[in-house]
Fold each of these.
Amino acid sequence: MPIVIDKDMLPKNPVTRFAPSPTGCLHLGHVASAIFVWGVAKVLGAKVILRFEDHDRQRSKKHFISNILHELEYLGFICKGDFGWDCLVYNQSENEGRYEKALDWLRSKGLTYACSCSRKDINNQNPSNDSVELLYLGTCRNKHLAESDNLGLRVLFDGNDEQFIDLIKGVEVQNPGRQCGDLLIKDRRGNWTYHFSNVVDDLYDLVNIVVRGEDLFDSCGRQIKLMKLLSANKLPVYLHHPLILDNSQKEKLSKKRRSLSISQLIDQKVPPQAILAEAAFQIGLCEKIERLSIEEVERFFVVKE
Ligand code: GLU
């Protein structure tokens, strides 16, 4: 069954992106995600940006960037020399100025504050929180700590709901104040956080269709709230795709766990079409097939007039 996208929900001049964190090797889950990104892009005529999210300077490694580039080229998502799929490639670490500028803006509006709390502190401050994610209760909000290299920075969130469109689920509402509280934008090691750098880049790059895994669904409300605080005049629409679960564990595949990496498959000379076919099958886009060519990935997506 193809994924049907409602034309009325789509932005004009569609721009999407694939945003891997170069903290490990690609696995089949990334390939499935890339099939969604490039397949949706192809069917909508959207531009694709390939953004390496190396905001975590301790865990990101240059060799993972070159490996991922090589793997995406092998699979046909990007073509060396000329980006046949109209693909802009960059690393977040090249764009420090963007994040500083966005922070200056928030700071000038009185929306940021320094925070000394560690994850452990936040858990201890809120023992009744039974959610898997941290809920920050605003402990440092009124402490007026001076910004310093070993403190984090947070942005003030109001308690309002945020609404957004998910192209599969429809209209959704989340309440970031109750999910996560004031959002961390820089951590205590001086790294920009995922939410902050990701949102700033999406705004700069005019990304208006965010295609990514279901595991990031809960991030939408807070990212939209942050976009609004940064004065975004247009908000993206989202498409959250299912994840490939590790059969033995029923957990999502991850770089940390011992999922078979794409580089291992390439070393074993598995053809790109076989890897694409397996990823598409495992994520539920098609029945088991032997081969899927890169030109065929758009066939899983249909725009409904
Ligand atoms: N860098 C994120 C990841 O690898 C992607 C986030 C996103 O697509 O918004 O999970």
Amino acid sequence: MKRFLVTGGSGFIGSHLCEKLISENHRVICIDNLITGNLRNISHLRDNSNFTFLRQDVTEYIDLDEDIDCILHFASPASPIDYLELPIQTLKVGSLGTHKALGLAKAKGSSFLLASSSEVYGDPLVHPQREDYWGNVNPIGPRGVYDEAKRFSEALTMAYHRVHGIKTRIVRIFNTFGPRMRKNDGRVVPAFISQALSGEPLTIFGDGSQTRSFCYITDLVEGIVKLTNSEICEPVNLGNPNEISITDFARLILSLTGSKSEIIFKPLPVDDPKVRKPDISRAKQELGWEPSVELEEGLKKTIEWFSQDLGLGTSD
Ligand code: UDP
């Protein structure tokens, strides 16, 4: 049994991670200020004596009595509309929050894993993206608050590794989807599924030729656990390299839901990346990891979850 602290543990990815660690009989302390996380995501874990939830902002001093073996730093607004609405919180959690979480790792002698993002590559000029690509980021654009927060977090993580000898890991997470995404978080998967299920038009931004590569949540969580148990200090891309245009993705959602919704076009957000696809050679070679859930299979499970959730009327 290991003792984990998960920041952002009641968010989409954080809650799946807490669930996985609890299922493996680890001790898990989940910290979240709930600005984008939701207690519903961890309600099924709260009776477990190995699980503790602390409502706290990770940018403030973290005072913990117990020992911790590993800190998983996942706290951050993470969807484009969230970080457009919460630009200062996004920059603070990436800078001050990462500093506090690394400071706690140093004080407790624990290892540390940073949830970074494919956004560090910005609107990439290299395709697919390998970890040694430095990216193409507009620091003063609206997405810059998230991209630069993650780039700063990576720099600080490496500094703590080099100066204090902390065992650090960095995962660069590409588009991930699954149950517990917020209906209104603005990302393409919950947007298209909820629009299709309620008969509203699917909103394609731009001409729909931009591409993304979607990874199912269980594959991602498995990769993160492998990285946690590895000795790799360099960043590791985790994502599914199966690339699809947003237009084809909209058609796929219509066909899987059987929806008669029409497709409409809206302006492309500023600095929206034109392409995105991970090169996962490092994860394959060094972790023995690759995703196994096909896009359609993952989408069917996600659509099922959204249809129940929308039916209950409890989604935000
Ligand atoms: N997108 C879209 N319609 C929507 C939401 C998103 O066409 O209702 C597009 C968005 O412009 C981007 C892609 O889908 O090109 C993926 O967007 P998302 O917000 O999921 O995340 P991103 O990959 O941009 O971080």
Amino acid sequence: MKNLFAFLKKNREITNEPDLDMTKIPKHIAIIMDGNGRWAKERNLPRALGHKAGVEAIRKIVKECDRLGVEYLTLYAFSTENWNRPVKEIDSLMKLLVDYLKKEFEELNANDVVINSIGNISKLPLICREELKYAYEKTKDNKGLILNLALNYGGRSEIVDAVKEISADLINKKISKDQINEDLFSKYMYTSKMPDPDLIIRPSGELRLSNFLLWQSAYSELWFSDINWPDFHEKELQSAIEDYQKRDRRFGKVK
Ligand code: FPP
């Protein structure tokens, strides 16, 4: 019964979406959540409050992706380079992560969301790792949106890690040199169990990937906006998807 209501609700809302082709929703959306600091500065607020406002945007966008039927949502929450920020800011980001997981867990779980992460989380504070572990365990059999948090993530270090693992498997004769190809390489990436992102979104006016999903973004469609992440609402996500649906994805081939 619960599922029937959810189905009816989803379909009623979807039919209210005149500009989106519901048969062409990107399977995997990845977002570089940028501009929290500038959002705070514009309001004479501390940077930590910019990140806090960024978490509100996460809440909305996760719900909207779920409603639209996006299967994977990857959020760049903390990069390998973000350790170079002031300790106070790093602490506030780690605290926000714990608070988010604690506060949102019940609702995410009830909505069948799977909580996942990419990146080297062994370097995160224990409390973050514990909260993440709990969330992975409890949601691993869910069947809905896969929410993938990029934490202590760097595209280059992901590639280096893959090379190290491939070398170890070569030395241990688990694989042979001839087996190394793009498909095999992909299996050694943190994202081995998910498709490459169809659409990468970066708000805040910056036009770069900043070490995000370097391997996986080879054929991703990129979408940029001047809006800072805390001001990124459902409407912006819909615009990004609408633009994406107009793109001609050829993957290097001729139509
Ligand atoms: C970039 O904005 C944003 C980040 C480095 C952190 C993003 C993290 C969150 C939104 C919250 C924590 C995450 C979770 C999953 C709860 P910036 O600070 O670089 O902005 P600026 O370029 O304007 O200074």
Amino acid sequence: MRFGRISGLVVSTFAFTAPAFAQETADAVAPEGASEGQVQALTEEVIAAVEAKLAGVPVQSENWMVAAANPLAVEAGGKILRAGGSAADAMVAVQVVLGLVEPQSSGLGGGAFLVWYDAASDQMTTLDGRETAPLAATPTLFHDENGEPLKFFDAVVGGLSVGTPGTPALLEEAHRRWGRSPWPGLFTDGIRLADEGFLVSPRLAALAANDAERLARFPAAAEYFLPGGEPLQQGLRLMNPDYAETLRVLAADGAAGFYGGDIAAGIVNTVRTAPGNPGVLSGTDLALYQVIEREPVCATYRSYEVCGMGPPSSGALTVGQILGMLDSYDLAAMGPESVEAWRLIGEASRLAFADRGRYMADSDFVPMPTEGLVDPAYLAERADLLNAESALIDVAPGNPAFDHAANWADDVSLELPSTSHISIVDSYGNVLSMTTTIENGFGSRLMTNGFLLNNELTDFSFRTHNNGVPIANRLEPGKRPRSSMSPTIVMQDGAPVLAIGSPGGSRIIGYVAKSIIAWADWGMDVQQAVSLPHLVNRFGTYDVELGTAAEGYVDALTTLGFEVSPRDLTSGLHAIEIGEQLSGGADPRREGIALGE
Ligand code: GLY
């Protein structure tokens, strides 16, 4: 155990306690740490939760638990749960505070997917609050005047990339279905913190400094994130009166106050007048926005059913495919230090990503072989490909059962890490897993009414066709871009046993799959599972987490024929195990905590 001093408190710095990774990598993957001011401002419970994370042990509780990316947001959710609110109520309070204190990752200007286990009815429901492409958008939105795809950041920054936000409608819909607390009270902490100010966290300060050039392009974002021309400083008390006003409108008028009136007008005006890169979002797009309930997608893994969000997210299908292919391999016997285990995980992931690139998109717009992709017989066939001594040379999509004739070309659209994940269990036994995003860090960099607007449309494939064959995830008006967000609830014998999810672009899928394997096969507790160093394979490169014990696999994986790339892998996993007690884990790579009573 190593010790560091934060704000006069002695706290242990992060060290792996997972038996497999006994090699301490504390400094290399240490969290960005709580700022001095933050620790002083927080309650004893929150400080204890920070200490638990830093010590690598799960937080335990009897009645309820909330795990999310910022202590102030977690505390807001905890207050609601303590007062008898449901997980849906607490989620609203968490999300509105996250949109203030972690504005670069998620907020009212973005979208989210929510997975809900309802204890009273023993039902699982998934809600799709994904952004939609404006009705005036065409498939060639991200093409230049020569018909060539724009460079990624030329498309991201400005109005062109902004989809119709879904998060405010999702908050209202979740509360309408499962809320127990009065709606206006869910905004109390968000409004107070926006009015009185909050202390800028180390992560927000570092990310604003890193992104200063892009943020400087638009006056509202520049004024807020670069006050006086300088990036926000850690520990600065930052107020956001415009956001407080937006929350007051939401608290009083519900989502209608967001999708119509002054807030909507501000969004549309900001998008359509963005200097250099105006977009096409309209008041009609906002007025027509709908949350969609969808069938959960579940895949069998060992004695578990791993359930999550179906299309337009590729999350549950791809996590399910990876786990389904690995089901016939005894990873438990191999253990987490086995090169063979990581070969299998990496290859299963490559095969799953090949199917993802070919088949997965918004199933309201393109026919998808959703059931075929997680059919155990199909996955067993794909799993046979893993019977090899070295890395597969050719990784191609398979042929899942499909009741529709379709010919799709492969898509390799880019998704960069950002986003945020919330896991909550309430005292009634309800479980919520929600991943929420504005896509890139700081989204489109456009800000209005105190919040940032998303750049979710760049999750579409910029190319519409390859060699004349259409790409399933091409942009179409009203369509939802394919996502990798993987909010997950794991079931066993008909009861929920784990809620988990992460940010991280398309690496989300690998982070979530790996953590479930660590927990289910390698006997790690939730904190060990989320802290375990990452090895992630998507399109072929085997990414290993820089500065951790994962780097110890570089030579062995290279010898097997993988192209290995050590790099920062900043997940933000938040997990709650539901057993005799609740047990929470928060990712040491970000600023979140798990809190319960
Ligand atoms: N924008 C990240 C995702 O939806 O996967």
